[in-house]
Amino acid sequence: MSGYFSFIPGDVLSDILTRLPLKTLIRCTSVCKPWHTLLTNPSFITKHLNQSRFNNKELLLVRIHSDSDDKEHYALRYDDNHLFSEYAQLEFPLKSSSCNHYFRIIGCCNGLICLSDDQFSYTNNLFLWNPFIRKTMRLPPVRVTVQTHGLFKHSIGFGFDSITDDYKVVRIVHLENHKKPPEIDIFSLSTGTWRDISHVALPHTIIDERAPQAFLKGAAHWIASSSDAKLIVSFHMGCEEFGQIMLPHNIMAHANQLQILGFRVAKFQDSLALIHLTGAKDKPCCIWVMKEYGVAESWTKQFNIDMIGPFNSVAGFTRNGQLVLASSAGYLLARDPHAGSLMHFLIRGSTHPTYRHSFYADAYSNSLVLLGMRFCDAGTSEESSPGDRSVEGSREAMKTKKRDDFLSKGFKLVL
Questions:
Q1: What end-to-end distance do the CA atoms of the chain give, in Å?
Q2: I need a surface site. Which of 127, 141, 220, 232 has the fewest CB within 10 A?
Q3: Does residue 128 sit in helix, strand or coil?
Q4: Phi/psi of residue 238, nearest 5 degrees
């Protein structure tokens, strides 16, 4: 069949294919080997992603944990100002260990979701998941564990390196005594391996344990602590360097109270945001937005959210700046902070305190990322022992050993 298209120049064919829907492209990988090679090439996947952003509907990824079946549920919703109607239910291929209950979502970037099974305990299991093409990948074993280095505090970042067209996961580990510089490792999807980059200078701060990240401007961001205050630490995925961003002056002026205040960074539209949740029933949740990236003086208090009554936590933001909130009754709602209107998602998660942080919402874009990876599996991941997870799925048992042997050596792209 490929002979019918041999007269079409390669760049023209590539341009034509980037305009096709994802489901069509997945079928096209079976046309012939040259097409498979083209469609699974990282540069084509990025080109198609950039093209599809102009044609596809804007989507919102939401996650809840249900009491009825004790499982986490993912879905895509149309990200609009009105109904947030359902686009697709997503079949989640993994199962968390019993001690962690649900996965911690590190981040979502270009259709790829990074997950860690460490919500409440150290299991050292990291995964990448593309729900649209039903591909999952377990990352190779991490270097620093409780067994090798003793107790520690750690945070993880995930994002896209536009310089090398690569996806990266960075893991920052502060050992128990904090006297030594942190152990830092970075995983590259293009090589399928971890690299020790502990030589990279991290400012004299401690990134909060399991702090949620916000990826924007090519960098992951976390809340961190120095000797006398809190601040934001960034890690640029391209140059692999750390930076610092100060918090709003009004907050820094009360540095002696910072230990009792709650902070979280987030992406608000295309800007860095700071969610300031005091935990006090008589004080609102404040949302600060950095109007000019990297300039501390540009922090602006965007709005206050009264958390008294029905609202329990901030799950995320829509693309147009609405807040997605979890109610005390376990429902997800979208709130327009300017109009004050509420939109009910009509989906309910757990009301148990253990699952308070299981509510999640973030902008999502369908993509082909992971399509060209070998030994990806959409099966269930069952916990076998702390720090050791075997990936099981619908494939025959005889393939499991081959896959595990491959995973222990890392991954590589089919080019």
A1: 21
A2: 141
A3: strand
A4: -80, -60
